[in-house]
Amino acid sequence: MTQQSLPETFRLRASNFNLLVLRLLDPRPDAVLPSLSDQFRRAPGFLRFAPIVVGLSDLVAAPEEVDFRGLIEGLHALEIVPVGTTGGSPAMRQAAQAAGLPPLRTSGGKDEDGPVEQARPQAQAQVQPVAVAAAPAPAAPVVDFRGTGRAAMLVTDPVRAGQRIYAEGADMVVTTTVNPGAEVLADGNIHVYGALRGRAIAGAQGDTSARVFALNFDPELIAIAGYYAVRDGLGHAPIGKPVQTRLEGEEMRFEKLG
Fold first, then answer.
1. Residues 223-237 pLDDT 10s
2. CATH number among 2.160.20.70, 3.30.450.40, 3.40.50.720, 2.30.42.10, domain 141-256
3. Where exactly does CATH 3.30.70.260 map onto the chain?
4. Helices in the chain by DSSP H: which ranges?
């Protein structure tokens, strides 16, 4: 009797993912979580269901002073998914791992905090599955957009609420609307030739020279190289007008186009 082989049910494959880093400045969850909750109130949908790495390098507390389990529970209550840690002392990383947050390293092998990191998934990470709206398939890159020396991703369909599109190593050109609740990210510049009503994150790998251009500027959140402003913090930005956003030092500038 011939034994039939079982059908293949899974494959394991190494990969890199862009993950935001939550750099802890205070070891107390009851201090950090209300601030995050307030941020969500001012920017609805910001980080909702997002996997996040907890940065430990800025903490000066002893490992036993950090309530990692309370932090994990609080982040889950805010619908944020902590997947691991970066930075910190060996004792701090060990305390975090005991609570279910394994140490992650960047793809280059360094263990440093940053606004966005390339982190490899760890086999021992224990993360509850969360449903995240799937982003559309990446558009074909357009080489050397307007002489910038880097490729650009062209997005021709409206970006709907819950969608997240990332232009890795490239600029992004959106010819339609970024709707509320949608998110566009690019390592370079972001050009929106329509209404920007969702979230736009340029310079995702730390490029402080990146800019965001929009013909109808009305974002929920705007960020460049880790510096960000939410809708309530746009000051005198010309809402609804053609605007370019850039960094000047650590300050965000909003300038009318044309």
1. 888 787 877 777 778
2. 2.160.20.70
3. 17-119
4. 29-42, 68-77, 90-98
pLDDT band at 62 (very low <50, low <70, confident <90, very high): confident
Q: Is the pTM of this model over 0.90?
A: no
pLDDT of residue 56: 92
**CA gap 73, 55 in Å, rounded:** 17
Inter-CA distances, 128 with 27, 44, 51, 209, Å: 24, 22, 11, 37
The answer to whether residue 117 scores a pLDDT higher than 90 is no
Q: What's the rounded mean pLDDT across residues 74-90?
A: 88
Does residue 44 register a pLDDT over 50? yes
Task: Give ranges for CATH 2.160.20.70 in the chain.
Answer: 141-256
Mean pLDDT of 148-163: 83
Residues in contact with 90: Cβ distance below 8 Å, sequence separation at least 6, in sequence order: none
Q: What are phi and psi of 254, to 5 degrees?
A: -120, 115
Q: Nearest Cα to 124, choosing from 103, 105, 110? A: 103
Residue reference for tokens 């509320």:
180
Pairing of strands 190-196, 171-174: parallel
> CA 134, CA 113: separation in Å to the nearest integer?
27
CA distances 131 to 25, 53, 70, 134, Å, are 29, 18, 23, 9
Round the average pLDDT of the chain to a whole number and report it: 78
Q: Which long-range contacts (CB under 8 A, 24 or more apart) does 224-227 make?
A: 224/252, 225/115, 226/114, 226/115, 226/116, 227/252
Q: What CATH number does the domain located at 17-119 have?
A: 3.30.70.260
Q: What is the mean pLDDT of residues 79-106?
A: 87
